[in-house]
């Protein structure tokens, strides 16, 4: 490593030889103590590092996250509406317009008429059903030598037509026919209404 | 202890501290004076030399041995000094265009632990008029007596550029001496 008097003097110029001496000094015992102090400092540094450890890659992610957020701030200029705009006064009219639309909208009803029955009619229909069952049972278990079919026919002839219709309605396999209790709010208007022939026809067309 | 032996002992966890103590003993003075001549103040040099060896401790396991160990330590010390001086310049609001080390003139004047002659003081003052890297090259050549290819390994500059830099530094110092007689 040492290359005395060759390279050093090569471009020394006119500098006095005596200048080469070291003008700086150190406190007494400095170098004797330096190793111990350096070791101590290294251990202290390690302890401090361990106590302030962060997850691996934290600062890289933090930097990326901050940069991304700064870019977003610049792009949006602090706006939170994602750049979308609405016409002037839009929100002032919105509630009113929405209500008006709701009022205009056709009520959602079943295509078939909704029949509503009161309790009295329920009782009449149950009575009709019981009667029919009784007749049917009697016919089934046979009275005399008449055929069951004839017996049924004979027994059915004794049942009023309206009762039969009511019975059939009660047991119709239709998903379109709705029965609602008179307890339903706002349904009073339906209770006493007479159905037109067109309504009944429409009902039967959808039922069968 | 030879560098190879130090590295071998350091690789073994049981003998790591012993290896590091040997390394400190071998290089601490050289590195200290290298730093001291750059930063002038003893307390600053004291801080920096410890920082340097702590870095050595942390990174020695990864030392690739593609350079001499002392060159590697010198490089760490040099970089630490240059970073320190840069920060000191900023703290003192020195213009970045001012490449000289004139901002250290007060430090030299106030320096305790200076027992040089008037001529040596004048030389140090002359050195502070040089750009930092030129002063660095002069110190390593004139005081540390390193070879140009060793200095080239440390600072990462070509030998030719280093020779030119050193030659210019000598000329400037001569001029300073003539104008401050």
- What is the CATH domain class of chain B? Mainly Alpha
Please state the average pLDDT score of chain B.
87
Quaternary state of this entry equals heterodimer
**Unreliable stretches of chain B, pLDDT < 50, 5 or more residues?**
none
Please tell me what the overall shape of chain A is: elongated
Element pattern of chain A in H and E: HHHHEHHHEHH
| Helix segment tally of chain A | 9
Query: What do the pLDDT scores of chain A average to?
Result: 66
What's the CATH architecture of chain B? Orthogonal Bundle
Which topology of chain B does CATH recognise? Rna Polymerase Sigma Factor, Chain: A
CATH homologous group name of chain B: RNA polymerase sigma factor, region 2, helix turn helix motif
**How many helices of chain B?**
9
Overall morphology of chain B: globular
The proportion of strand residues of chain B reads under 5%
Beta-strand segment tally of chain B = 0
Task: Explain the overall architecture.
The complex is a heterodimer of chains A (208) and B (181). Chain A has 208 residues and is mostly helical. Chain A has a domain at 115-207. Chain A contains 9 helices and 2 strands. In chain A, α5 packs antiparallel against α6 and α5 crosses α7. Chain A is elongated, with a radius of gyration of 51 Å. With 181 residues, chain B is mainly α. Chain B is globular, with a radius of gyration of 17 Å.
